[in-house]
Amino acid sequence: VDETYIMIKPDGVQRGLVGEIISRFERKGFKLTGLKLFQCPKELAEEHYKDLSSKPFFPSLIEYITSGPVVCMAWEGVGIVPSARKLIGATNPLQAEPGTIRGDLAVQTGRNVVHGSDSPENGKREIGERL
Ligand code: GTP
Ligand code: MG
């Protein structure tokens, strides 16, 4: 069965959105198979977002992800990798459709509440490394 890695970012935890976000995945019909609250070390945040290391916003992204605890989760279900990305919505919350997590709950790209793996391979790898 397909699986993906979902991480509620520090703003989502600080704003009390953990239950809301978990509910959306549960109501969709996906199955929670792993969960932990985790303070991400700087080195792991840099590794997680290494593809973006040359971007001007990279230092602020690392500061953001390490600014407080995150919730690391493994979820499974048919077609979950692209479906989770749809539930999450576009990277820039102002372009995310209403009804999506970012579209309903966020306004800034740099505070966009949740991460979802972008491929089945990355999903497996991220679950293996974090949970
Ligand atoms: P993730 O699920 O977190 O990987 O987001 P994504 O796949 O929708 O976007 P991407 O992988 O391209 O970027 C990773 C994260 O970097 C985004 O979710 C944002 O938090 C941050 N980010 C991307 N682009 C920008 C930007 O232009 N400015 C800022 N401040 N942050 C950005
Ligand atoms: Mg991404």
Q: How can the largest sheet be summarized? A: 4 strands, antiparallel
Instruction: Report the β-strand fraction as a percent range.
Output: 15-25%
Radius of gyration: 14 Å
Weakly predicted, low-confidence segments:
none
Mean pLDDT: 97
Percent range of helical residues = 40-55%
N-to-C terminal Cα separation, in Å? 18 Å
Ligands and ions found: guanosine-5'-triphosphate, magnesium ion
- In spatial order, strands of the major sheet run 2-3-1-4
Order of helix and strand elements from N to C terminus = EHHEHHEHHEH
Structural class: alpha+beta
Task: Give the arrangement of secondary structure elements.
Elements (H helix, E strand, L loop, with lengths): L2 E6 L1 H5 L3 H11 L2 E8 L3 H7 L9 H8 L4 E7 L3 H9 L12 H5 L8 E3 L3 H11 L1
Antiparallel strand pairs: 1-3, 1-4, 2-3
The structure holds guanosine-5'-triphosphate and magnesium ion.
The site of guanosine-5'-triphosphate (GTP) has 11 residues, from helix 4 and strand 4.
Structure description:
It is a single chain. With 131 residues, the chain is α+β, with helices and mostly antiparallel strands. Helix content is 43%, strand content 18%. A 4-stranded antiparallel beta sheet has the order 2-3-1-4. The chain is globular and about 35 Å long. The model has no long low-confidence stretch (mean pLDDT 97). The site of guanosine-5'-triphosphate has 11 residues, from helix 4 and strand 4. Residues 52, 57, 60-61, 91, 109-110, 112, 115-116, 118 line the site of guanosine-5'-triphosphate (GTP).
